[in-house]
Amino acid sequence: MHGSDAPAAAHAETHQEHPIKLYLVVWAWLFILSACSYMVDYLHLEGALRWSLILIFMILKAGLIVAVFMHMAWERLALVYAILVPPIAILVFVWIMTVESDYTLWTRLTFFGAGP
Amino acid sequence: MPQDGMSAIAHEQSPEGWRSIVTDWSADKQTFHVPWGKAMMWIFLVSDTFIFSCFLVSYMNVRISTAVPWPNPSEVFALQAFGTDVPLLLIAIMTFVLITSSGTMAMAVNFGYRGDRARTTSLMLITAAFGAVFVGMQAFEWTKLILEGVRPWENPFGAEQFGASFFMITGFHGMHVSFGVAYLVIVAIKVWRGDYERAGGNYEIVEIAGLYWHFVDLVWVFIFAFFYLW
Asked: How many folded domains does chain B comprise?
């Protein structure tokens, strides 16, 4: 264990105090992005445009919440990577289940016909 | 001070970027230089991420694999307002309520670290109130759909799996919001009573409760995108 000055330094680093204005700006952006994603549905956008817009607004909102509201932007990288890297496995899971559900649909259409 | 993990490393000398990861993970010492409660909350949130991901992936699976058309959420969740059907009206309001509660929570954390107990308590209670409003609107939505004949095994709009996915995903999220409201009220009362003041003026618990609350908002972002808008 090091000298007695270390706790003060550590305190400064774990102390997540940021200007209120920053939170209000992020809050406003979350409102704007939510309104945008609502407009995607309201304006009946379809196809690739609809899906890409939904994903873009979703990722931007999630990023703002994690980075600013949950203070990830100011944490040490050891914690950031320990938390944000494992969820990447979910993308692999999504891929596996997409293949699996396509196969299920194929068997249903092939053996039970198009109807229910 | 072996019991004080914070003193394990003097941060002034610690490197930046990738080297900081190597420094933090190597040798016989604490890896995460945050309060243990915060590290534990983050690890719990990662596990919760996997649970919600399983629900959303299973929803994706049944939606892709069904040969029956999926009900159009835009129409199913439309509400009568101003004389017309407004698509997803209630869901949009719920989204704004939850985002607003996240904003007030972020400010509560800030005032907590400044030691402003009155503002911290009131902002946390406002956050909890928004959460309760959200759960109330969700209860209204459930009631409406159940009265229209939506069940986990059937519904009048299309593929049967719609009901199962809807009740499972929104139900589990609503439960998280409800627990969050209780959690926030408990911490707010303890802040107001001065429990943390007596424990040395340490308001990390407000930030930790905030992490949970922001996570609930975060999950709603994904549910809103994948279940309601897709």
From this structure: 2
Q: pLDDT for A50-94, tens place per residue?
A: 999 999 999 999 999 999 999 999 998 989 999 999 999 999 999
Return residues 186-215 of B near A (CB < 8 Å). Answer: 204, 207, 210-211, 214-215
| Residues B13 and B122 occupy one common structural domain | no
C-beta atoms of B7 and A83 within 8 A = no
Q: Provide the domain limits for residue B24.
A: 1-33
Q: Do A65 and B217 touch (CB under 8 A)?
A: yes
Residue A10 has pLDDT above 60, yes or no: no
Interface of B with A in 32-51 (CB under 8 A): 32-35, 38-39, 42-43, 45-46, 49-50
Residues B25 and B39 in one domain: no
Chain B: nearest CA to A88, how far in angstroms? 10
The C-alpha of B44 sits at a distance from chain A's nearest C-alpha, in angstroms, of 10
B110 and B219 together in one domain: yes
pLDDT at site A5: 41
Beta-carbon separation of A69 and B214 below 8 A: yes
Task: Note if the pTM is more than 0.90.
Answer: no
Assess whether B104 and B155 both reside in one domain: yes
Q: What is the pLDDT of residues B66-123, one digit of tens each?
A: 999 999 888 888 887 777 778 888 999 999 999 999 999 999 999 998 889 999 999 9
Task: Give the confidence band of A1 by pLDDT, cuts at 50, 70, 90.
Answer: very low
Let me know whether B29 and B44 are in one domain: no
Q: Do B54 and B25 sit in the same domain of this protein? A: no
Position A8 scores a pLDDT of 41
Q: How far is A115 from chain B (nearest CA, A)?
A: 7
**Locus of tokens 């908002």:** B217
